[in-house]
Write a structure and sequence with these properties.
Elements: E1 2-4, H1 12-25, E2 32-35, H2 37-40, H3 50-63, E3 72-75, H4 81-90, H5 95-99, H6 102-110, H7 117-120, H8 122-131, E4 137-138, H9 145-162, E5 170-171, H10 206-214, H11 231-243, H12 246-257, H13 263-290, H14 292-320
Parallel strand pairs: 1-2, 2-3, 4-5
Helix pairs in contact: 3-13, 4-8, 8-9, 10-13, 11-13
Bound molecules: adenosine-5'-diphosphate.
Adenosine-5'-diphosphate binds at residues 2, 4-5, 7, 13-14, 16-18, 140-141, 143-144, 179-181, 189-192.
């Protein structure tokens, strides 16, 4: 189970941190992937663009290879049971631990005029989203590690107090390390809402991709053979490793090691690798976004599957809480 907020355009971080693993998982596991529209209200209270953002996130997921017939692809707000589970879990979550969450502190700094209770209890709602399907594997990027730990705590607390209902959820990436896709400016990660000029979006046209990569931060270049790469350069190599051919990457690795690397050539190749990687996804997503009837069908089918799974869990939860009085 996993989710992506409809707060902007999907980028390479979302792709490699999340969607790529969704696609790999869909043949082997029973999967629930949602567009986290309720979570987006904690930071994006203006809902004017919500519908088009939701349509785009769905289209970009499908264009990346997600098959709505194989998985439950749904909107968070279409599963009302989650709100009930969230309420119960709120009784098990302590204000102190929520206040200490890194993302809460960050978001509170970014939006001091809107430090709402939803922002504080974000990890609780996220836990409800996950455990309502009794999910154990959560494909996410590295930035979500702390939330997943909280999720395990809340699930375990419920189990201890009311009975073993939930498996322990854990971040999942096929036995590999969790991915953090860096931004092109040498600091931070690619993101939907920050660093837009240093983030490559799945909808970026070719010229814009070239322009952004050209502006990526480099340095004077290595002066001694086999020196470790500074972060800004290591980030570009990581990006080429993700989107490009491994043989060409090897050529640039050697050029780095023997101090003959030309950053102009390296960045031009990285830009072309990104252009090639993104083109088919962008084109397919644009076509899907035009097709309102298809998207409606996808959402209805997804909600049906997700609600069926959620209502089974909620029957167990109400029983465990002794909320059945007849
Ligand atoms: P964003 O941070 O861009 O708003 P979300 O919070 O909606 O994205 O996260 C959706 C998924 O994308 C999560 O699984 C998250 O871990 C992953 N993700 C987001 N940014 C990155 C990144 N730069 N590198 C790796 N994974 C990322």
């Amino acid at each position: 189970m996993s989710g992506i907020r409809p707060t902007g355009f999907l980028h390479l971080g979302n792709y490699f941190g999340a969607v790529k693993n969704y696609v790999r998982m869909q043949d082997e596991y029973e999967c629930y992937f949602m567009v986290a529209d309720l979570h987006s209200l904690t930071t994006h209270p203006d809902t004017k663009e919500l519908k088009s953002n939701i349509h785009r996130v769905l289209a970009e997921n499908i264009a990346s290879g997600l098959d709505p017939d194989k998985v439950a692809l749904y909107c968070q707000s279409h599963v009302h049971d989650t709100a009930e589970l969230y309420l119960y879990l709120n009784m098990l979550a302590y204000v102190g631990e929520l206040e200490r969450t890194t993302t809460f502190k960050e978001k509170a700094r970014q939006q001091p005029d809107n430090v709402n209770a939803g922002l504080l209890t974000y990890p609780v709602l996220q836990t409800a989203d996950i455990i309502i399907h009794r999910a154990s594997l959560v494909p996410v990027g590295k930035d979500q590690e702390q939330h997943l730990e909280m999720c395990r705590n809340f699930a375990n607390r419920f189990n201890h107090r009311f009975g073993e209902i939930f498996p322990e959820p854990a971040a999942f990436n096929f036995g590999e390390d969790l991915v953090k896709v860096p931004s092109l400016d040498g600091s931070g990660k690619m993101s939907k809402s920050e660093n837009q000029n240093a983030t490559i979006y799945l909808s970026d046209p070719e010229d814009l991709i070239r322009k952004k990569v050209k502006k990526a931060i480099t340095d004077v270049g290595p002066t001694e053979p086999n020196t470790p790469k500074p972060d800004s350069i290591a980030n570009l190599f990581l990006l080429m490793k993700l989107v490009g051919s491994q043989e060409r990457l090897q050529v640039f690795e050697e050029a780095w090691n023997n101090c003959t690397i030309l950053y102009g050539d390296f960045k031009a190749q990285l830009a072309e690798d990104m252009v090639e990687f993104i083109r088919p996804i962008r084109e397919k997503a644009a076509a899907i976004q035009e097709d309102n009837n298809y998207l409606k069908e996808v959402m209805e089918k997804g909600a049906e599957k997700a609600n069926a799974s959620a209502s089974k869990t909620m029957a167990l939860v109400r029983e465990a809480l002794r909320l059945n009085y007849y």
